[in-house]
Amino acid sequence: MGLLRRDLLLAARRSSDVVSVLFFFIIAASLFPLGVGADPALLRAVAPGVLWVAALLSTMLSLGRLFAADLADGTLEQMLLSPQPLVMTVAIKTLAHWLVSGVPLVFLAPVLGLQFDLAGREIAVLTVSLLLGTPVLSLIGAIGAALTLGVRGGNVLVAVLVLPLYIPVLIFGAGAVTASAAGLNAQAGLSLVGAMLALSVVFAPYAAAAALRIAME
Amino acid sequence: MLTARELRCERGDRALFTDLNFALEAGTLLHVQGANGSGKTSLLRMLCGLTTPASGQILWDGDDIRELREDYASQLTYIGHHPAVKDDLSALENVCISQLLAGQPVSREQALEALAAVGLKNQANLPSRVLSQGQRRRVALARLWLCNKPLWVLDEPYNTLDVNAVVLLQRHIETHLGRGGMAVLTTHQEPGIAAKLVRTLRLSA
Lengths: 217, 205
Hints:
The complex is a heterodimer.
Chain A: H1 2-13, H2 15-36, H3 40-72, H4 75-80, H5 86-115, H6 120-147, H7 154-181, H8 187-216
Helix pairs in contact in A: 1-2, 1-5, 2-3, 2-5, 3-5, 3-6, 3-7, 5-6, 5-8, 6-7, 6-8, 7-8
Chain B: E1 2-11, E2 14-24, E3 29-34, H1 40-48, E4 55-60, E5 63-64, H2 65-68, H3 70-73, E6 76-79, H4 91-101, H5 108-117, H6 133-141, E7 151-155, H7 163-178, E8 182-186, E9 198-203
Parallel strand pairs in B: 3-8, 3-9, 6-7, 7-8
Antiparallel strand pairs in B: 1-2, 1-4, 4-5
Helix pairs in contact in B: 4-5
């Protein structure tokens, strides 16, 4: 728990990093109405995809911070040498990453949804899909961040590595919103995103911890 | 007791050292000597379990450290080249957090005492960003005044420290050895510890 507090404290001391990622999300999502024109029907149709892709990209941006700073100042060595299992440490750091860069997206998305003329029900589904989906993004991202740790050009590599793995979350997360807009039941999509969350909570910290050990060799 | 058996370390396709053996008993210090690039840091990281030797074994009280893992980690304090001090946190917060990572949480008062012991009483609440290199190293070393783990692995602990701090640290290491602790350290200076407690290991590249 102390470790979670440490990560949140560090994020608070470096709030500009956090805020710039949020602004990226707002700006990226707001560029689309300007680009495709102000046809409400068209905007409603593209909204789920656009908001989800913007969420993926802004999560990507903040992945670099997850382990790189701790590697540079030697804290990561201490984490590996801690009597606390590394898997726990990784899980806590990933939770902190989600609280700092995922949760704000969940709160911002409804506001941006209004910009795309989404109806109340779709906004609700969008929010729930992001609430279930953004932790998956952080968890899968942690594996990518750990694998590319200390590699030159790691930031680009992590995008190439992680974005394909985000595809299922994108399809079912955005699909749930589209389904609800078409008057269908959104539950199938949401359940699948929930299932991905359950799977990644169990397996991703182990994979990321193993990748960290390899990176520190 | 820390034992190394036929250790071999490779960097790329070059062997840094081969067939390295030693045994370190309670109350003694191992001084690892060698030119730059002879594998001192690699050996220390190996002894901590951060890297795996190309061949050979490291035993802690007769058990392979790769099998002990977290149990071994709870016996060991490692202070490496990078002091693991966060710029954005104060000296006090840094000490509290590194103790937390080491599995031995301390109260604010205990952390303050340790900082006072290393001469940073008045800097305890300053962000580490404004501390000098030597002061940051003192923050890292404050951990040695808090933890009671038997094995200390110190990579160039005297670097960037002033003369007084070096003496202070040397006396503290002697106290630790006197309590039956063990230490492995690399330094290009004299270790400054009573000669009868020191074992020397020379790595030749």
